[in-house]
Amino acid sequence: MDSLYKSCVWLATQARRDDLKWQNIALIVFSHTTAVWGLFKYGGQVKLATVLFAYVIGGIGGFGVTAGAHRLWTHRTYKAKWPLRVILLFCYSVAGQNSLFDWVRDHRVHHKF
């Protein structure tokens, strides 16, 4: 039984390694590298309004991921009428995290392992 468990864990681990989304990895590395470069090059020249705008946009995206993709569509913890669903979908789209269908699928798989 122990060897069966170990082989199942190995297979699951191997499948996860092979399923790396290289396009996403490249985009994340590029965006973070660009952000660090921009911070050093333009860090002292940024206006307060720009910083506030970035925080507001980040909050909107985070709200869309948390309240929409995570709570509403993945775990179905509450029901929402279509106007709220549209607002949450818009907020989620600001986060830039693939399609909603991919996010929900990946997160449900995450909870199975």
From TrEMBL:
It is found in: Membrane. GO terms for cellular component: endoplasmic reticulum membrane. The keyword Transmembrane helix applies. This is Acyl-CoA Delta(11) desaturase. Belongs to the fatty acid desaturase type 1 family. The chain crosses the membrane at residues 20-40, 52-70, 82-104. The histidine box domains are involved in binding the catalytic metal ions.
